[in-house]
TrEMBL record:
<protein>
    <submittedName>
        <fullName>Uncharacterized protein</fullName>
    </submittedName>
</protein>
<dbReference type="GO" id="GO:0005762">
    <property type="term" value="C:mitochondrial large ribosomal subunit"/>
</dbReference>
<dbReference type="InterPro" id="IPR024388">
    <property type="entry name" value="Ribosomal_mL58"/>
</dbReference>
<dbReference type="Pfam" id="PF12824">
    <property type="entry name" value="MRP-L20"/>
</dbReference>
<feature type="region of interest" description="Disordered">
    <location>
        <begin position="181"/>
        <end position="202"/>
    </location>
</feature>
<dbReference type="GO" id="GO:0003735">
    <property type="term" value="F:structural constituent of ribosome"/>
</dbReference>
<feature type="compositionally biased region" description="Basic and acidic residues">
    <location>
        <begin position="186"/>
        <end position="202"/>
    </location>
</feature>
<feature type="region of interest" description="Disordered">
    <location>
        <begin position="28"/>
        <end position="55"/>
    </location>
</feature>
Length: 202
């Protein structure tokens, strides 16, 4: 009786539920066929524009040599004989470059300032001071420099922040310093000490 009970689950797998095995085999076969179909569809031929044709005529030469050391065959102009043909070729090349020189843009001067100098009048200076005194949060030095087309250093020279503004900035700085740890505090102190020694040339 016990053997029948043990054999019953095994027999039920092969007799009562054969569709389970078929479904597993079908799933495996579908997976394999799907892989084959995907591989065939992805095997796309390259576009003919990227494939060089043997019969197409080539009307240009691609010359892209690798970088190398100077060659003895590249003789400077100073060492060429007077009747050498390369002198004539170099002269023709120089004439072509001179003809194209007027098409080049003007040289860029990095020191050239983007704002005008000495263009503000007394009325403009008074307006800058009024805006700075009335709304210091809105009209900062940078905003005033953009509005009047001048440098922020000039704005700082002709205006002065109010006492409330200076106290507010000092409080912000103290709040930032309060969050410093011992390492950063020591580093800032050493930096300040080095600045003082540099000022005294020590």
């Amino acid at each position: 009786m016990d053997l029948r009970i043990l054999r019953r689950p095994v027999a039920s797998i092969f007799s009562a539920k054969p569709q389970c095995l078929l479904s597993l085999n079908a799933t495996a076969r579908r997976h394999e066929s799907s892989y084959r179909r995907s591989k065939q569809r992805l095997n796309v031929k390259p576009d003919p524009n990227f494939v060089p044709s043997n019969g197409a005529p080539q009307d240009h030469i691609i010359f892209n040599p690798p970088s190398s050391s100077p060659s003895v065959f590249h003789t400077p102009l100073k060492f060429l004989p007077k009747d050498d043909k390369r002198r004539k070729l170099l002269a023709i090349t120089q004439e072509r470059l001179n003809a194209l020189s007027h098409r080049l843009p003007p040289p860029v001067n990095p020191k050239q300032l983007k704002y005008e100098r000495h263009h503000l009048s007394e009325k403009d200076v008074a307006e800058i001071r009024r805006l700075r005194a009335e709304e210091p949060e809105k009209w900062t030095r940078l905003q005033l420099a953009k509005k009047f087309n001048c440098s922020s250093i000039f704005i700082g020279m002709i205006t002065e922040a109010s006492a409330e503004k200076r106290d507010l900035e000092r409080e912000k700085l103290e709040a930032v310093k309060a969050r410093w740890g011992p390492t950063r505090t020591a580093a800032r102190e050493n930096r300040q000490r080095r600045i003082e020694l540099a000022k005294r040339d020590e």
